[in-house]
Each structure stands twice: as C-alpha cells, then as structure tokens.
Design goal:
The chain is α/β, with parallel strands linked by helices and 191 residues long. Helix content is 17%, strand content 31%.
Length: 191
C-alpha cells in the first residue's frame, strides 16, 4: 500500500512523480537536452527532492532518461534500485555504485514484479514512463516544478490519455527565490 500526498493509503497507485518542466510544459529539448534546468548549488536548496527521494523504494525510468542521467559526473541515486524500462540490454556496465536493472512490460506488470520484491513505493521519471503510469492509474502523487523559461518545443511531460481525464487535487504550491514554482497534486481515483 502506498501513502498519498495527504497521508491516506492507496492500494492501487504505488508511484509518484517529481519532475521539472519549462513554463510551456516541456521536460527536455527535442534532442533530450536539459541544459536549461538550473543546477542546484552544493548544500543549497533542493526543492524538497531529498525528502521525496528518501520516501521511495526504487526508481522506474525509461531508457532515454537513464542514458541522460548515466552521463552525469556522479550517479545521483546512490544504491537505491533503478529499473530501466527497455527491451534491449544496456550498453556498458551500471554507473559506479548504482544498482541498475532492466525490465519490460506494461506498467501494471512492472509494479507487480517490484512489489513482490518489497519495492512498493516507486518514483517514476521520464516523459513516456510518467505518461504510461498515469494512463494506467498507477500514480497517486505528482510534484511538478516549473522553471521560468519558454522552450517553444521539446519533449512534453504529458501526452494523450487512453483512459479518459486524470483528475487532480491541488495539495500545495511553493515559490522559490530563483523563480521556480513547485506544485504538488494528489491524483484522484478514476470514476
């Protein structure tokens, strides 16, 4: 069972999202670049990320997101399990200190396999992965930080929904001195 944003427990939505977008709703440039994202100063504001990260058991991300993160100077996830959704083997070894594995299947199957291993609370990342988990009704919490920049085009956070509207309840909004605005939403059960 997974805790939702207001402390209630949901047996059906074990995933949460913590992500940044441009003001016009893109998570990356068309080529996947995220050079427009501000880089937090060491020891500076983390926008609540550490608290969020400490509350999850594992990360689930798409291959493109993994390849982007893999190129960072240091692996940002420590020894927390990272599941990369792909049908192909990864090129090269896992990043130093990283616990990385690949999996394929529908979001419901991924959740079931990970829950069987005791990994019940998931952090989903990457545009297609977030979209698939939302569409499957497996996300109960979204924290979206808006960066004050317009990209004009890029990779959108949200896409078509095959199961109808996803209704949200606003939980909180915070603004930061650097202009970032962060909103948290509880994803309401579908009707």
């Amino acid at each position: 069972m997974a805790a939702v944003g207001d402390g209630r427990v949901s047996p059906h939505a074990p995933a949460a999202v913590f992500i940044a977008t441009s003001l016009d709703g893109f998570i990356a440039r068309e080529d996947g670049a995220i050079d427009w994202l501000p880089v937090p100063e060491p020891g500076g504001e983390d926008y609540g990320y550490a608290t969020f990260f400490d509350a999850v058991d594992a990360l689930v991300m798409g291959r493109n997101t993994f390849e982007l993160v893999r190129a960072f100077p240091t692996w940002p996830y420590g020894d927390k399990p990272v599941v990369v959704l792909t049908h192909r083997p990864l090129d090269g070894p896992a990043p130093s200190g990283g616990r990385v594995e690949t999996m394929a299947g529908r979001p419901e199957e991924i959740v079931e396999r990970l829950a069987a291993r005791g990994l019940a609370r998931l952090y989903v990342d990457g545009g297609k992965t977030v979209q698939a988990f939302l569409d499957a009704g497996l996300v109960d919490r979204m924290i979206v930080t808006t960066v004050p920049v317009l990209l004009g085009r890029g990779i959108p956070l949200f896409g078509p929904l095959s199961n109808g509207d996803v209704r949200l309840r606003h939980v909180a909004t915070r603004s930061f001195a650097d202009g970032l605005v962060q909103s948290e939403y509880a994803v309401l059960p579908s009707r």
